[in-house]
Task: inverse folding
């Protein structure tokens, strides 16, 4: 940056637009990024962020406007072109080959895809490993490049993706532009902190576009924040003169903050809906006892090795345990998913796409899949009734677009999650709901709707067991908090009379 | 502010030794797994050898050893191609048809009892050309028209058989005339049967292709996720067609060798090979879903099945029971191999 003349922008967009049929997903977006800048890109699900990123990664072609990289206008005909121009994208869904080594994943995309291949067309493994180690070193990671990606934790995989993105740019002799699409959406807090530290290092190497739903994160990491809404870029601010509340308002277009929950302690006489006693599964959790009461939200906090997800799955019968007991509404026989559902338990899994929904089925059929409710007469389901029932849920949970006859896989993540939730809410007798990371990947607007719905079913007398993404989420919505560490319970709080600070909780988690 | 307190805490709270420890655990686990999987196969092989040598003293002799190697040579050659196809996440059922068509083409163009032309080495080129055409056709139909490989190659199996039958016509059996070629496959050079030397060469080349060439690495990548391959700008189309072509060429080579071994041309020269090859790949530990596995494992799988067959015969198991026994052992082995790969909800399709 000691140049007298200012260097050209790493990336310059001029009135870029993209339509799908009549739907204008991106409308006249103009944006310019200087070397060494970290730009935050925020917006609700469906605001056009993903489409914009796909244009930059060469997956979509824009209809109008121009894109210039390092001062030169470019036309991307495919992902390979974008890579060659020095734009590396770390996608929201992981895009690593899990069966290959770290080194290959980093090198596989180097320009013309010839990383480490010698003149005979054979791989030069030694060079491949050396180059990959160098790329990892640049971002301060000391992973062994010979490790297979399937052996890595999520945060390490993100590091590999970032290393790859940088490697691609470095090999084409351009200032790297790394685009991170919600890199922290599915990370635990501690992992997020590691990743944040690495992102701030990227500033010395190149520029970054950081897409996230977590506003606090954006404020910490970025120099500038741009906000998208309805396909348009509506604000471009420096982080110094904007507040989190203002960003939220810009993004969602309305003021929202749920009223502070009015909490009470557990009434002495109430019986728990779900009661687990001394539950143990070797290598996962030990002597876990938890009671979940009707009309209360119980949040289980813990890091990724705490075993809290496995406990939640055991309650629903989706995973076995070695000893102890799970009793649901008085029944404490052999647990199974079938039994749990029959007893009125619902489960929203973290792996939404594989366990929570049938993507190749219309949204309305997904809703009536488990509990047909009023859509069925005896064993027969009536399509018209099903559709009108689905319309009610679409209205109630603000699922967009309001087209329940469309395949569920065509909806955005937040709206899919609402459909999954509706599937359980459609039960006439929902006694308990187990929510495994229900807000994962949801934008703040959708998260508010889901949370509001959780509160309302809870107030109707359902017991909620929640595995939250963040401590804030737990403090926001829970009545009881159980903290787990290394498979054991390390703290229990009844928020009716306890008032734990974030640090208290964090201390018990680590 | 809650957020600020949290961020400061985590910035201080990162303990790099914990990360180092995790990295070393990752490495150790990977190294252990790399050893453990082939080890269990080798152990199964050892158990079989011990059991059969106790049952019959003729089992553990040089001549039987060479016999087993000759029997395994053709399945090994074909299985190298099958492994590549399965690593893509596809399957090639056309093996026996391609073997028939290639073998028949070759013998009719070589010196045989029906007379006709003797093209010498050109017979090899033309016969393997037939295999290549069948393979490229399968590959193109599969890739360009997006028909499941299962269906395409099932059809190609019968196309191959049809070609072989048409060439065969209604004439007398074409019998091999060249004395130098007769019995060549089971003749011993440097201690090993000739056909096994060919198999070793093919295995070596296969490992080289899979480990160190673009085709091989992209094959593994496609098996893992074709979506990612495409969005990374890698040549998915070309590689898929190439792999089907390679597999057909190897089936063709196997067909010619089988014809030499049989001494006569027959459309069904490859009969029974598919039922060794596909199970061998799976028992070896290559995932039917693609992406994971390797050629050496398949080699172990082929040996396991050939030794099993050979041992059963020597132990005097009646031939009518043999296929039932082989089949049952096969199912058991596959259940065992697939046990660790069940998903969390124990779903199988």
Result:
């Amino acid at each position: 940056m000691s140049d007298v003349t200012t260097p050209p922008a790493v990336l310059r967009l001029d009135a870029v637009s993209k339509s799908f049929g009549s739907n204008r997903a991106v409308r006249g977006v103009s944006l310019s990024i200087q070397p060494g800048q970290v730009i935050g890109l925020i917006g609700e699900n469906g605001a056009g962020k993903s489409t914009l990123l796909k244009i930059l990664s060469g997956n979509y072609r824009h209809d109008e406007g121009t894109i210039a990289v390092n001062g030169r206008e470019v036309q991307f005909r495919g992902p390979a072109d974008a890579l060659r121009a020095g734009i590396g994208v770390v996608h929201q869904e992981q895009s690593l080959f899990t069966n290959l080594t770290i080194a290959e994943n980093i090198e596989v995309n180097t320009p013309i895809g010839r990383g480490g291949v010698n003149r005979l067309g054979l791989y030069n493994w030694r060079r491949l490993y050396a180059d990959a180690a160098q790329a990892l070193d640049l971002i301060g990671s000391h992973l062994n490049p010979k490790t297979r990606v399937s052996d890595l934790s999520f945060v390490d995989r993100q590091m590999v993706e970032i290393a790859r993105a940088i490697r691609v740019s470095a090999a084409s002799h351009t200032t790297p532009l790394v685009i991170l699409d919600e890199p922290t959406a599915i990370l635990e807090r501690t992992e997020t902190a590691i990743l944040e530290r690495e992102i701030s290092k990227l500033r010395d190497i190149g520029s970054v576009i950081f897409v996230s739903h977590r506003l606090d994160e954006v404020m910490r990491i970025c120099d500038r924040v741009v906000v998208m809404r309805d396909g348009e870029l509506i604000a471009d601010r420096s982080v110094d003169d904007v507040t989190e509340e203002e960003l939220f308002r810009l993004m969602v277009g309305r003021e929202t903050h749920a009223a502070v929950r009015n909490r009470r302690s557990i009434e002495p006489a109430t019986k728990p809906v779900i009661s687990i006693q001394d539950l143990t599964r070797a290598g996962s959790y030990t002597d876990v006892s938890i009671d979940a009461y009707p009309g209360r939200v119980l949040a289980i906090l813990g890091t990724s090795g705490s075993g809290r997800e496995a406990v939640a799955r055991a309650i629903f019968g989706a995973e076995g345990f070695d000893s102890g007991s799970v009793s649901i509404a008085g029944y404490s026989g052999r647990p199974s998913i079938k039994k749990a559902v029959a007893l009125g338990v619902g489960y929203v899994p973290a792996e939404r796409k594989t366990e929570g929904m049938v993507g190749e089925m219309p949204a309305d059929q997904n809703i009536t899949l488990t509990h047909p409710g009023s859509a069925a007469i005896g064993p027969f389901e009536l399509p018209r009734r099903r559709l009108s029932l689905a319309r009610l849920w679409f209205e109630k949970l603000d699922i967009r677009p309001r087209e329940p006859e469309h395949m569920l896989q065509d909806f955005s993540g937040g709206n899919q999650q609402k459909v999954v939730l509706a599937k359980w809410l459609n039960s006439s007798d929902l006694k308990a709901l187990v929510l495994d990371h229900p807000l994962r990947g949801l934008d703040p607007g959708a998260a508010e709707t889901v949370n509001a719905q959780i509160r309302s079913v809870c107030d109707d007398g359902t017991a909620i067991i929640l595995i939250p993404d963040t401590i804030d989420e737990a403090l926001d919505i829970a009545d009881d908090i159980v903290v787990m560490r290394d498979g054991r319970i390390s703290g229990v709080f009844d928020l009716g009379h306890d008032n734990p600070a974030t640090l208290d909780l964090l201390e018990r988690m680590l | 502010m809650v957020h600020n307190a949290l961020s400061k805490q985590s910035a201080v709270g990162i303990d790099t030794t914990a990360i180092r420890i995790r990295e070393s655990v990752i490495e150790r686990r990977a190294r252990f797994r790399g050893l453990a999987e082939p080890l269990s196969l080798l152990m199964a092989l050892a158990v079989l050898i011990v059991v059969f040598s106790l049952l019959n003293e003729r089992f553990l002799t040089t001549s039987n050893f060479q016999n087993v190697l000759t029997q395994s040579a053709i399945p090994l050659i074909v299985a190298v191609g099958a492994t590549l196809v399965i690593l893509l996440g596809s399957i090639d059922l056309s093996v026996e048809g391609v073997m028939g068509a290639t073998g028949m083409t070759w013998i009719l163009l070589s010196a045989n009892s029906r007379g006709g032309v003797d093209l010498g080495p050109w017979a090899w080129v033309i016969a393997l050309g037939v295999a290549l055409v069948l393979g490229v056709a399968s590959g193109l139909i599969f890739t360009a028209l997006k028909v499941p490989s299962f269906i395409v190659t099932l059809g190609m199996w019968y196309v191959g058989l049809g070609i072989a039958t048409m060439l065969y016509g209604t004439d007398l059996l074409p019998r091999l005339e060249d004395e130098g070629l007769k019995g060549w496959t089971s003749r011993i050079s440097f201690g090993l049967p000739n056909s096994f030397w060919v198999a070793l060469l093919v295995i070596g080349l296969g490992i080289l292709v899979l480990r160190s060439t673009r085709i091989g690495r992209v094959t593994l990548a496609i098996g893992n996720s074709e979506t990612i391959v495409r969005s990374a700008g890698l040549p998915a189309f070309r590689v898929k067609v190439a792999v089907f072509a390679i597999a057909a060429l190897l089936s063709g080579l196997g067909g010619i060798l089988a014809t030499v071994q049989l001494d006569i041309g027959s459309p069904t020269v490859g009969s029974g090979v598919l039922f060794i090859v596909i199970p061998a790949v799976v028992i070896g530990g290559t995932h039917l879903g693609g992406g994971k596995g390797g050629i050496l494992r398949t080699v172990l799988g082929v040996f396991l099945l050939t030794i099993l067959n050979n041992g059963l015969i020597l132990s005097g198991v009646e031939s009518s029971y043999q296929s039932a026994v082989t089949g049952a052992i096969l199912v058991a082995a596959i259940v065992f191999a697939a046990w660790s790969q069940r998903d969390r909800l124990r779903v199988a399709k």
Chain B is about 70% helix and 0% strand.
